[in-house]
Design a protein that fits this description.
A 3-stranded antiparallel β-sheet has the order 3-5-6, with helices on one face. It has a two-stranded antiparallel sheet with strand order 1-2. Strands 4-7 form a two-stranded antiparallel ribbon. It has 224 residues and is α+β, with helices and mostly antiparallel strands. The longest helix has 18 residues. A hairpin with a 4-residue loop joins β5 and β6.
């Protein structure tokens, strides 16, 4: 509930009207001309610059939650390991179980990669911002009339790596089709990512886009 109130007070999620001991009431942004994005709309040239700038604005404005006593806890590794513990090692359906063994890395292999990535990032001290936590296209609501966007479902919001939030958004553009997940051809091209980041940095730095200069593509180790 805290995250919903926080994001609502800063106009980054649908407005919260009332809260109770067992829930809350919030605005239906989709009923007010809002459009929930999908993998196609997320790369639409008339939409993505608005979304990118709003993500940048969110990271800039919400940074006060870190400076004002928020916990700068890079929780991506803790959360990922918690999810990993819940992944079964055996499936009831023999065909699905065989496919899992053949196509998926083992839990030990994934945990090893997490440890290696954590060690690399610890040496590089990447930027931490107050992230939404689940910037998949379905959680982005675009308003074509106001030319703005809000972000639904901020329950996972908190301090996290800036690069992780952006990488997760790009990777989630593949959609929910498991046959697309992890396949590079379904991740937006580097040229698109550069244009998206150009708009993002304008919002993050609170400057006009023509004043943003990106000298090189950031190395998003989270998406490697």
């Amino acid at each position: 509930m805290y995250n919903y109130r926080l994001f609502s007070s800063r106009h980054f999620c649908p407005r919260v009207y009332a809260s109770f001991a067992n829930g809350f009431v919030h605005e239906n942004a989709l009923a007010n001309a809002g459009i929930s994005l999908n993998s196609d709309l997320a790369v639409d040239r008339n939409i993505y610059p608005v979304v990118a700038r709003r993500v940048g604005e969110m990271h800039r404005v919400m940074k006060t939650e870190l400076d004002g006593g928020g916990v700068a806890d890079n929780n991506v590794f803790r959360t990922t390991r918690a999810w990993l513990k819940m992944v079964p090692t055996q499936l009831a359906d023999p065909r699905n179980n065989q496919r899992m063994k053949k196509e998926m890395p083992s839990k030990n292999a994934i945990d090893k990669e997490l440890t290696e990535l954590e060690q690399v990032l610890a040496r590089e001290t990447p930027a931490v911002v107050f992230c939404h936590g689940d910037l998949s296209p379905a959680n982005v609501i675009f308003d074509p009339v106001r030319r703005s966007a809000v972000f639904a479902a901020p329950e996972y919001a908190g301090a996290n790596y800036q690069a992780f939030e952006l990488s997760q958004h790009f990777l989630s553009m593949a959609g929910a089709d498991l046959d697309r997940v992890g396949r590079e051809e379904y991740v937006p091209a580097k040229e698109f990512q550069m244009r998206w980041l150009h708009a993002y940095l304008a919002g993050y730095r609170n400057v006009p886009e023509h004043k943003v200069i990106i000298l090189a593509m950031p190395n998003f180790k989270f998406s490697d």
